[in-house]
Amino acid sequence: MEISVKRGHPQEQKTACLIVGVHAGKKLSSAAEAIDKALGGTLTKLFKRGDLTGAMGETLMLHEAPGTSAERVLVMGCGKIEGVEAAEYQQIVGKAARAVADAGLRNAVACLTELEVKERDTHWKTLQAALAFHNSTYRFDQMKSKPSKKTRCAKLTLLVESVRNAEAERAVAIADGMAEGLNLTKDLANLPGNHCPPKQLADAAKALGKAHKSLKVTVLERAEMEALGMGSLLAVAQGSAEAPKLITLEYTGDAGKSRPIVLVGKGVTFDSGGISIKPGPGMDEMKFDMCGAASVLGVMKAVASLGLAVNVVGVIPAVENMPDGKAIKPGDVVTSMSGQTIEILNTDAEGRLILCDALTYAARFEPDVVIDIATLTGACVIALGSHASGLLSNHDPLAEELLRAGQHSGDRAWRLPLWDDYQKQLDSNFADMANVGGREAGTITAACFLARYTKAYRWAHLDIAGTAWHSGKAKGASGRPVPMLMEFILNRARRAG
């Protein structure tokens, strides 16, 4: 999609759809006032008749717009005029984008950045509008013999105030880069397990390396991981015919002047649960167990596309977890790269087994911070649902930085405790630790397990089990937490600049 910003009068915009906002209490935005005048008071009449209320999220498509240069006018309800909340603005632009997509319109002009949003500036409003329209054009239909032929919106123009053009243009450029990363994340996550084994993730990383000279890509094979002593990661892979991969992507954006941000993404390309096999219903969604890996690849693509002045490393342990005669069994003891031994009580708690070796490996990059991203625990879904990712960290400033990035981007997280009190749940009679800590506080004990491998650096863990994909009729990858991570990295890049 081509997105641009410009100045101009709303009624003079030649477009398939002009989008304006109205508020509750019969209050029109300045763009809506101009359109109401051009339409001979149509919006005012609709208010009087009760066909238009201005309530938050309301949409009304006028299919004729005489007196303007637009073919249609989409009127968006924006709630109270006193100031729109950030989350409400995201709802408004999201609904506007979906309305344009549902109508199959080829282009649109939006006059929504003029809305007053509490504690948000033009840059943020433009970025969110651009991202919403990019998101509305996403489709995953490469597995279908007859892909949809419905017209996608190919061009969006955002009308902005003249003094803020440069600010808005920069926001559009960032949105374009982020959309590339989000689309890659969704594409990889939506692929079925037979089309996206560990090798496919490695190939996707190599393709990024070829497309962006700023990215150095390395893929370690089984023998190399054996030489490093990655017994925990390899234990998960041993029940599958698919070979494991350890993928690293190194982006240098400031000539090596700063220590890198290291992102570690869980890449279980299909999780059957292994010998501790999962129930059959819903198991198809376990193709999404590599959403952490997909999000790391998406972030690396976005960062490289934008050429940000920051150093970022992505580390992806990629495996398939399957039951087989060679698969690990409950009660087995394995030795991690760190030398710590693990009693495997449940083979379906495999994500932490591959992450612990990847987290040990991450130390060699001398990181400033390490953030792991994983669809790790069903307990997190029970605790937080699909609204917030779980966040646990051994460093308060890092945790606060991520929480702020999540709040600002709308891709929110909620922090859970990482107290030593929970560590005793991982006690084992036969190894240094067990890989599960019982039913209580499952998200926390999973993070406590990982914390034993992250003492050498500042670390945060994002449990995205509830946020990485949608179930039901809208089943598909959400792209989260790419927006949060990009906000975090963009903030770092701004400070460095």
Written description of the protein model:
With 497 residues, this protein is α/β, with parallel strands linked by helices. The chain folds into two domains: 2-137, Leucine Aminopeptidase, subunit E, domain 1; 182-496, Zn peptidases (Aminopeptidase), CATH 3.40.630.10. The chain has 14 helices and 21 strands. It has helices at 30-38, 42-49, 86-102, 122-136, 165-190, 198-211, 222-228, 231-237, 291-306, 351-362, 378-384, 396-409, 442-451, 482-496; strands spanning 2-6, 18-23, 27-28, 59-62, 73-77, 107-110, 155-159, 215-220, 245-252, 261-265, 267-271, 311-321, 333-335, 341-343, 369-374, 389-393, 413-415, 433-434, 459-463, 469-470, 476-477. Strands 8, 9, 10, 11, 12, 15, 16, 17 and 19 form a nine-stranded mixed sheet that branches. Strand 16 (389-393), helix 12 and strand 17 (413-415) form a beta-alpha-beta unit. Helix 5 packs antiparallel against helix 9. The model has no long low-confidence stretch (mean pLDDT 96).
